[in-house]
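lol ok so funny story. i was supposed to be doing the assay writeup but got distracted and ended up predicting the structure for this chain instead. priorities right. anyway since i did it might as well share w the group, maybe its usefull for someone
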Amino acid sequence: METKIITIDNVKTDASAIKAAAGILDGGGLVAFPTETVYGIGCMVSSEAIERLDAVKNRPQEKRYTLHIGDESQLAEYVPVVGLRAKKLISKVWPGPLTVVFQLNGEDLKKQREKLGDDCFEILYRDGSIGVRCPDDPVAGALLSETKSAIVAPSANLAGEAPATRWSEVEAVFSGKIDAILVNNSGKKDGNFA
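and the output, tada:
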């Protein structure tokens, strides 16, 4: 497999490239993209895509995944009731590098299972909770807002290794193993964080 390098200079003018990357994710592919801290490898929430991601990262299957959303408005799709304290926290930290864990009651969990289906539900909700992150990177936000599927995105590294902060680090480890790498050239030197 050839890993595509997709450079984004401007989210608005490169919207078709972001849409193409979202299509790869919605088709079950793996796409690395920048967040405000590190690169993540995104995949849709399905057993097949998760199995592929686990194999590529050499990641333990029992490890939980965090849902990634493009903006706060997508939260209601996965967390029906957000308490006042959580709303205040979200307003201060999102978008940003914080995963917020939401505890759902039994009735809401039942509704989410019916709404999302067993496969998606089993991957996202464990022990009555779901972890959600809203990255503060314009490329990540645009990509996650464009997808039609729920997306998880653990850090772009092999299990036990340091997360990649440069797209070239992602390419060095995952070239030929993932479908695409999105590079944010708007405001970052050579699409990197350093």
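Residues 74 and 145 are 8 Å apart (CA to CA). Residues 15-26 form the longest helix (12 residues).
back to the writeup now i swear
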